[in-house]
Amino acid sequence: MPPDTPNTEVSPCRRSPTTRRKRPSPSGARSRSTTWPPATPPAHPTLQHLWSTEGVPVSVTVTLVDGLFVGRAAISTSLNFRSVVVNGTARPVAPEDRAKSFQALTDQIIPGRWSEFRPIKDGRSGGPSELDTDGKATPTIGVLSVSLTDATVTAKTHCISEPEHETQADRDWNDGHNWAGLLPIRRIYGPALPDSTAAQRGSAVPRSVQPLVAGCEAG
Fold first, then answer.
1. Residue 108 pLDDT > 90, yes or no?
2. Would you call 91 helix, strand, or coil by DSSP?
3. DSSP-derived 3-state class of residue 151
4. Pairing of strands 78-92, 150-156
5. Model pLDDT for residues 28-60, shown as the tens digit of each residue
6. Which residue, 114, 118, 112, 116, is CA-closest to 211?
7. Whole-number Å distance between alpha carbons of 109 and 103
8. What is the pTM assigned to this prediction?
9. Do residues 87 and 149 touch, judged by C-beta distance below 8 A?
């Protein structure tokens, strides 16, 4: 199942210098120095608040873009997409059940990949579990379950024969040769590129990955 979620890169930014001003005080009140503008509380530094056993209300949105519709006018240029919004309550999955959750997720993305991993220590055979990170400020591994309290699905598909928001003037512009149409977006895997360790050791592409990259030429 190809990855459909784009990666987002956040660029560091420089904070504006804070200017200290003495604000006017009401008559009779003691004058005091304060910072203006007032300091805004930082965003929540961790996801620890999601680790509440009582549950936390969340909203999860996934959007899949299927195509770009190139219109004859800027207002008629749009996207074909499918989107789902799920509102529910997020609760942490118990450590003893997290391995099953990771297996289901892994094999959904790369069928058969779970059996190729190093066996994970889930605590069932004694000793600490690699999946028990509860109580840590920044859990490195965790699984949340979300109840499907409410879900909404939206799909947008443009009809090629009847473009939206176009006028006869748009169709007649450029002597009637003003092109419009649909560009389907296809999600495919490229060639498998080994990391430095796999390349140094000459490790073969795993059997579970081979069907995903079949037909790809090495870049």
1. yes
2. strand
3. strand
4. antiparallel
5. 444 444 444 445 555 544 567 777 788 899 999
6. 112
7. 10
8. 0.63
9. yes
